[in-house]
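Input sequence (487 aa), recorded before submission:
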Amino acid sequence: MSKTAKHVISIPEAKKRLVNKLSDPVYFTSRVLNKALWPIQAAILNSVRNNPRTAVRSCHGIGKTFTAAMCILWFLYSHKKAIVLSTAPTWRQVEKLIWKEIRTAYREAAVPLGGALLPKTPELHLIHDEWYAAGLSTNEPDRFQGFHEEHILVVVDEAAGVNLQIFEAIEGVLTSSGARLLLIGNPTSIGGAFYDAFTKPGFNAFHVSAFDTPNFTAFNIKPEDIASGEWKDKISSELPYPRLITPAWAADRYAVWGENSAPYQVRVMGNFPQQSEDTLIPLLWIELAMERWNDKQAGDDVQLGVDVAAFGSDRTVIAVRRGRKIDSLNVYTQKSTRETAGLAKYMANINNTHNIKVDEIGVGRGVVDSLEEEGFMNVGVNVAERASNSERFANLRAELWWNLRDSLDPDIVKNPEPLALPPDDELLAELSAVKFKFTARGAIQLESKEEMKKRLGRSPDRADAVCLALYNVKYNEFADCDAFVLG
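Predicted structure, C-alpha cell format:
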C-alpha cells in the first residue's frame, strides 16, 4: 500500500465504533449533548454504566439534578428498547426540575436527537412506545409496577424524601441483567432506603461535600478557611462554575446555621445529620414542608401568630397561616409594643381575620393590651400555663411545639394534609435545633429558650410565631372559626 494511501473503514466498522463511543456516558454528554461535566459528575455517570446500583449523597448545589438528567438521556439513547423512569418526592421536582434539565439538553444537543419529547407531560419516546423515558409521581406506588425490559434505569432525585413504599415498588422493576438504579440527593434523614444505601452493601456510593466541588478545589479552600474567613483571600480569579455552590454561600450558611447544626452538615458538608433521639423535628420533615410550599394552595382559615421581641438582637415575627400553609413570615427589629400591636392589627386587616395569637409573657403583655383596646379580644397566649393534655405535656409551650411536629409529619396515614412552610433558612435552623426531654412523671418538656439561644446564637423567633399561628383550643386541631377564643 502506498505511504499516501488512507485507511478506509467499512460502514459496519464505523457503526461499531460509533456504538462504542455512545456507550461512554461522558462522551455522549460532552459531544452529543454538548454539556460540560466536572470530574465527580463524570464519575457518577460512569458508575451508572458500570454498576447496577449507584447512590450519591451531596451538599447543596453541585448539579445533582443536571447529572441525573444527563444520565437519563445517555441511557435512553445508548440502549436499544430502553425504559427510563424518574421520580422525586414531589411532582414539582419531577416536572419542573429534572425534566426541565432534560428538555433543555434535548433542545440544545449538538445533533438532533430524534424521538418525540411530549410538550405537556414528562415523557420522551423513541421509535415506538416500548422505548421511552417518563417521570412518575411518588404518591401512587402502583404506577411503578409492570415495567420490564432488559435495559431499564430508575433515577430517584432527592431520594431521602421518597417513602419506603415507592422503593419497594421500584425493586420490582430492577430484575433484569441490564437494570440500573441511581439514587441522588441531600442526606437529610438518618433512616430509610437512601440512608441504607450508604450503610449496607450493594451500592457504589459517592459522598460529595462543598469542599469537593470546583469552586472550592480550584482555590484549595478547606473547612477551616470558611471558619476563619480566609477563603476570601484565596479566591484569585473568577469562579470556574458560578452556578454551583460557592464559598461565599457556605460562609454565609456557617454564620446563620453554625458548623455543628444539622442544616450545615447536610447542605454544606454532605453528611447525614447527627440527630439524636431528643431532636424534636427531623430535618427531613422540615425540608419536605418547605419543598411543598410553592405548590400548596392557601386555605380560607387565616390565623396570625405573633412572637414579640424582648430586647437586643431578638426579632418580632408575625406568621400568617392560611389553612395548611404558613403563607408568610414577617420579621421586624426594634419595634415598641405599640408599633408591634399596630403591625399585628394591619396584618389582620389585610388578611381579613380576627384571629391573632400573641405570646403574652414579658413585653408581649403590652401588645395584648393594645390589641384589646382596639377591640381584639382574647389574643394573649401564656405558653407557661398548663397544657390542655397535661398528662402528656409539661406545659402549653411543649404542647404547641409538639402540635407543630405532628403537623409536619409526612406520613399521610397519620397526617393526610401536612403543613407547608416557607423556604427560610433561619426557620430551618430553628426548627431542626429544638430538643425535648421527659419530666420525672413522664411528661414531654421542651428545652428552655435560654438553652436554644445558647446553641442557635439567637431566640427561635420564627419558629415560635409559627407555633402560635397553629394554636387552637383543642390540641392538634386547626382553628376554623371566625373569632379565636381561648379555652
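Checked by second reader. Residues 11-208 form a domain with the Rossmann fold fold (CATH 3.40.50.300).
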